[in-house]
Amino acid sequence: MSSSQAPRSGARSEPQASEVEKVVSANRDTSKVRVLGRSPGSAALRPGITLGSYPERDEAAASWLDRIALRWNGGRPQRVLDALSREAERIEQRRAQLAALGADAFAEATRDARRRLRREGVDGPAAGEALALVCETARRALGTPPFSVQIIGGIAILRGMLAEMETGEGKTLTASLPAATAALAGIPTHVVTVNDYLVARDVDWMRPIYAALGLTVGAVLDADPDPARRRAAYRCDVTYATNKQIAFDYLRDRLIRRDRRARLRNELRDVLGGECAAPLLRGLCFAIVDEADSVLIDEARTPLILSRTPEAGGLTAVSVEALRVARALAAGRDYSVNYRERRIALSDEGAARVAELSAGFGGAWASRQRREELAMLGVSALCLYARDEQYVVRNGKVQIVDPNTGRAMPDRSWEAGLHQMIEAKEGCPVTAPHEALARISYQQFYRRYLRLGGMTGTAREVTGELLRVYRLPALRIPTRLPCARHRCGERVLATAQEKWAAVVARAAEMAARGRPTLIGTGSVAASEELSRRLHERDLAHRVLNARQDAEEAQVVAQAGERGRITVATAMAGRGTDIRLGEGVRELGGLHVIATARAEARRIDRQLIGRCARQGDPGSHELITSLDDDLIASGCPTWLRRCARWLLAGSPRLGERVAVQCGAVAQRVAERRHARIRRALVDDEEHLEALLALSGPSE
User: Quick one: which of 65, 198, 240, 584 could link to 580 by a disulfide (CB 3.0–4.6 Å)?
Assistant: First the structure.
């Protein structure tokens, strides 16, 4: 990726710019050209004669020199931050000068900046002038200019870096600065976030800025699959979309452009203005990934598969038979369950029992391998997948719940027949297994952007992986105001019953003080169990989960009101801006209670980050139990037994040991997920090498 030079305002300006340029110099591949010196201008980042109608980066492996440069330069963040801070000061000074311009003069300045950007690109002094114009436009459109930390973040993103900004620092506005600057240069810009709610909200919030600059903005929503409307959204200067939908749309484009004749037709359509089938996107030019650790790390364990659904055939009968066999098997004797790895192992006795139980079924059951696979799928559906935890049932359909966002995913399904087995278990119509048409991982997809930037509040633990896999250096940006978040500690109780009682008591205490309380739960079932207990205590509250998401915006808007209790799954984590009601700040702000450790510390910090935003006061605490799924599956049995024994006899010492149980289980989960991601990358690179002579693997 390319880097920018700071506007030259003195003798020290070039060294400042070169310091930033060194950090991203190893991240500068554009299309199939390895750029080792100064990167080309915006013409190398937009569709045109240079790169064709659908530019994307050649996914060549990083050279040893690139890897060394990334590691070396990634270790000097303070020097980079100092350079960007000085550049942000110059941009703020220029914005103050532009504030004196009248409407006509300002419009002329904007047109001049657009011409300069198209000529010089976003890697030269024109970018600084454009950023100052965008900042002043934000002030005129929204009533307040971006703060210096937001400008620093915007510069870092524009130069292909990840800006790590604390939750509540205004990342939505930060993203609009590089997005508008790149769009003024004619670069199709994608702002990628994690769900429809944030897409719609961010487009609504930022539309006045783009409109004032003469830019168009579009939204691609999961709920709107119409190709014509999607194509129109991608034709806008700036497009907001969810991470899944933009990747699937890219796969659809790959099907259109798979052979040489399809590519030629696309080039002829551009020249002749024909109406032959056109791709949805305009290439992969510049992406700004919001909540980058969620998209690039948490979501990266599973490849995306574009598929079609054939007829279901006799799958219903086979699934019902498999569940009947599974229910007749005895745990421990016929099969064992590895909850940590989420796997089923069939014993020799179990294999013989399966053969006996399925003797009269025929068909797929005649094959030993196939009948054992069916039996293990049935056991998995019964033992490893629970309603309102891994999935919900809506309108007679099984919908997977994303563990990272807490949202239902109607278009996603489990593979290898598992989804059909769960449908049969729940009595839903059994659908056919999807037939794969194309596949890609998030690692493959985002490395194909000519320029990639991002932002998040929780990248600390994964900066090395982001650098290694995506060549995306992270820069931690300080907060605008001192953080007033108070940590109330962690309590670990012996049983789930004790935990829920403690949570309800704490929520009642906060409500009596008039403070709003946000309670985070690990699943739909847990949120509804807590809701039942709150009802028993006559404590008014609202619930936000994958089953009750229709009023999400209203629930979030009211969550900061005086005495309000809100129970939510991970839906209330990333991107949720809870604003304090009147008089709440004086009472201590929002109080957050986490009732279970997530599988990564970063996700816990996202929930905690809902309180004490932008200098407001707030507090948080963790109340868990030794019965929690993460501890039960990830912590050694002897350590849990020791903690239970100590909690009964020496509560203070027992709680310290129990806290370590949760920490150990969380680290185990983090390492397991990192291994899965690394294995996926290695498999894809191996597959690419095998298929190098026959074309791309997807």
Answer: 584
| pLDDT tens-place string over residues 26-77 | 444 433 333 323 344 555 688 888 788 888 887 655 555 665 656 655 557 7
* Cα gap 566→531, rounded to integer Å: 9
Question: From residue 156, how far is each of 24, 43, 429, 431, 659 by CA, in Å?
Answer: 10, 20, 50, 46, 38
Complete edge-to-edge strand list for the sheet that includes strand 189-193: 217-220, 238-242, 189-193, 286-290, 451-456, 162-165, 474-477
| Same domain membership, residue 326 and residue 251 | no
Long-range own/partner contacts, residues 211-214 (CB < 8 A, 24 or more apart): 211/141, 212/137, 212/140, 212/141, 213/110, 213/133, 213/134, 213/137, 213/180, 213/183, 213/184, 214/110, 214/114
| 623 membership: H or E segment, kind and range | strand 617-625
At 618, which helix (H) or strand (E)? strand 617-625
Q: Please indicate, yes or no, if residue 374 is contained in any of the structural domains.
A: yes
Helix (H, G, I), strand (E, B) or coil at 85: helix
Whole-number Å distance between alpha carbons of 462 and 446: 16
Evaluate if pTM is beyond 0.85.
no
**Same domain, yes or no, for 40 and 66?**
yes
Q: Are strands 162-165 and 474-477 parallel, antiparallel or unpaired?
A: parallel
The mean pLDDT of the chain is 83
How far is C-alpha 204 from the chain's CA centre? 20
141 with 37, same domain: the answer is yes
Q: Are 158 and 187 in contact (CB under 8 A)?
A: no
Per-residue 3-state assignment (H helix, E strand, C coil) for 568-585: ECHHHCCCCCCCCCCCHH
Residues 163 and 192 in one domain: yes
Condensed to tens digits (0 to 9), the pLDDT of residues 587-598 reads 999 999 999 998
